[in-house]
Write a sequence for this structure.
């Protein structure tokens, strides 16, 4: 698909404008403290937006609406624990980081335990965040390249190189100031998108009708009270496992810790975290709701049978083309019947005819099930055409809608939203990976007595190096079932252990370095086994990992007996 | 939860509600109210 000149201008103008602003604004960065922590002059709203932008990658805006389109609002439960986690971090984590004046969260672990625990935890962070940074670049690149026909490698390079340029130039401060602009663009773009979709609904369909239709088709179930360890999104995973995930992500992941450590004061950092805790959940609900609106839109406008045009082209070029075209015809027939049934359902609702309403709801459900079967048949056909093709098309729904139904100009703005989101989270990741490599490894253990200029240059070199590693991973990565889940799964494999180490440090003051170090290794092994050999939903791994470290470290400490290292206790 | 204002004199109070403890409690109440509101809103249309 070809973009119009106006869309190109808006998209590139927004992207380069923000990058240029970031470089210009941070042109005076000339020492390592300024590069790694900014000038510690950020106000709470910049910190809050920066924290939100770090978490909200392009995947958030590509995958989440598709998730709502397919599965409804249930994914919102993932964020229910966030404000609770923010309050806990403000009370327990932040004051310690500020008091010890650390550059990275892991520095605290050496003061509290020992060097090996610090380095092990920092290493877990580097592995998990290094992998995630690759996906953060790769995810939007593969979708954009598939939909717009752009070459994948060049799209990867475009995102990666731009991010590397301004992150290398201005460090933490460049990341934060660009994220503020990026977040403003992102929120504006999503609000406009929601407004345009509502405007594009048929004139006889009111907004409340749209909500009734999605409700009757089970898309609005925002809370699932069922307690089932294998269910991914329930209120229990959100409120319990989710709290552990967010405690670990926001409290111990350097890509987030670095955002609020650059605050002007403890007060500004706290307010930034609280701002994130309150705004992030509703923002995710807005993004999910945009997906619901797209779903409603496609109840009155024929949707493609399969949303990934690359896959459709592959089937069209194969011997399965005729069979696929027949499925598309069947899909159009079902769509037409469903549209009629939905209008009947709305009429019955208006006239309060209970029996007729029940009947029409049943008909809509039946047609919806038929549509799903046709989509599954299309996926099977795609798979039969080429088993290497990924048949999941949820990540393509929103971008497909943007390109085919949004007005010229807004397409450019929404593409800028996706690129901005990709760049904002990648920048934080590269910045944090470089900082951890510099502070926790290079300066601490390999080259401790060099000049400030040397460390500044090395920080820049590490940023470029991590950028190249992320790009390399992006080039060889393959598409997961759902990209936003892939990032969260990678995080959940490590976050529980990391959080457990920090919780032990904060709350089990009698436990020492050796005990927590062995406990962390045992826990990480167990977490990988649990993920590989059981069906337990990945969010629970955060809670299990955290609790396992606490228990195992306590047992080991009881067995080996305590020492009386008062200097370590003093930093708790 | 401890009152940070009292424990550490270097920490300044929040811009509203006087103490951090009070602010945290209000945040959690707002969160609870938001959850219930979203639940009731979406449940109404289900």
């Amino acid at each position: 698909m070809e973009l119009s000149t106006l869309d190109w201008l808006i998209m590139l103008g927004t992207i380069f404008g923000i990058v240029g602003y970031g470089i210009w604004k941070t042109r005076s960065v000339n020492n390592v403290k300024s590069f790694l922590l900014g000038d510690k002059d950020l106000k709470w709203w910049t910190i809050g937006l920066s924290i939100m932008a770090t978490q909200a990658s392009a995947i958030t805006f590509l995958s989440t609406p598709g998730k709502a389109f397919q599965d409804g609002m249930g994914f919102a439960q993932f964020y229910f624990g966030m404000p609770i986690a923010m309050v806990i971090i403000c009370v327990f984590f932040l004051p310690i980081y500020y008091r010890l004046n650390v550059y990275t969260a892991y520095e605290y672990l050496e003061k509290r335990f020992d060097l090996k625990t610090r380095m092990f935890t920092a290493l877990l962070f580097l592995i998990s965040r290094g992998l995630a940074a690759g996906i953060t670049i790769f995810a939007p690149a593969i979708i954009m390249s598939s939909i717009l026909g752009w070459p994948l490698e060049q799209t990867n390079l475009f995102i990666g190189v731009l991010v590397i340029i301004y992150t290398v130039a201005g460090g933490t401060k460049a990341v934060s100031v660009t994220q503020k602009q990026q977040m403003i663009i992102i929120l504006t773009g999503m609000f406009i998108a929601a407004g345009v979709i509502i405007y594009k609904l048929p004139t006889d369909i009111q907004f409340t009708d749209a909500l009734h239709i999605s409700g009757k088709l089970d898309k609005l179930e925002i809370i699932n009270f069922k307690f089932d360890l294998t269910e991914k999104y329930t209120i229990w995973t959100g409120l319990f496992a989710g709290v552990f995930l967010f405690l670990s992500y926001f409290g111990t992941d350097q890509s987030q810790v670095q955002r609020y450590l650059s605050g002007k004061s403890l007060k500004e950092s706290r307010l930034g975290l609280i701002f994130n805790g309150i705004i992030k959940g509703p923002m995710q609900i807005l993004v999910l709701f945009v997906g619901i609106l797209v779903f409603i839109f496609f109840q009155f406008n024929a949707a493609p049978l399969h949303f990934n045009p690359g896959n459709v082209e592959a089937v069209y070029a194969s011997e399965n083309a005729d069979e696929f075209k027949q499925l598309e015809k069947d899909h159009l027939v079902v769509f037409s019947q469903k549209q009629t049934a939905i209008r009947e359902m709305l009429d019955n609702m208006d006239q309060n005819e209970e029996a007729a309403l029940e009947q029409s709801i049943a008909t809509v459900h039946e047609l919806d099930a038929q549509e799903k079967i046709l989509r599954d048949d299309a996926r099977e056909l795609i798979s039969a055409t080429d088993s290497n093709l990924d048949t999941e098309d949820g990540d393509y729904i929103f971008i497909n809608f943007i390109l085919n139904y949004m007005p010229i100009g807004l397409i450019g703005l929404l593409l800028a939203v996706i690129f901005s989101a990709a760049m904002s989270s990648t920048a934080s990741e590269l910045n944090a990976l470089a900082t951890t490599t510099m502070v926790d490894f290079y300066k601490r253990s390999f080259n401790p007595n060099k000049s400030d200029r040397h460390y500044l240059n090395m920080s820049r070199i590490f940023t470029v190096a991590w950028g190249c590693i992320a790009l390399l991973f992006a080039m060889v990565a393959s598409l997961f079932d759902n990209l936003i889940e892939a990032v969260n799964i990678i995080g959940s494999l490590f976050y529980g252990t990391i959080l457990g180490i920090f919780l032990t440090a904060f709350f089990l003051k009698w436990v020492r370095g050796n005990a927590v170090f062995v406990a962390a290794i045992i826990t990480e092994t167990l977490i990988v086994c649990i993920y590989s050999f059981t069906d337990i939903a990945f969010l629970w791994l955060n809670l299990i990992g955290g609790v396992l470290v606490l228990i195992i470290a306590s047992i080991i400490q009881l067995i080996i007996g305590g020492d009386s290292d008062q200097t370590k206790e003093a930093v708790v | 939860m401890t009152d940070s204002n009292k424990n550490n004199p270097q920490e300044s109070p929040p811009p509203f509600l006087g103490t951090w403890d009070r602010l945290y409690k209000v945040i959690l109440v707002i969160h609870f109210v938001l959850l219930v509101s979203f639940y009731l809103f979406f449940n109404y249309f289900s």
Q: What stands out?
A: The longest helix of chain A spans residues 152-200.
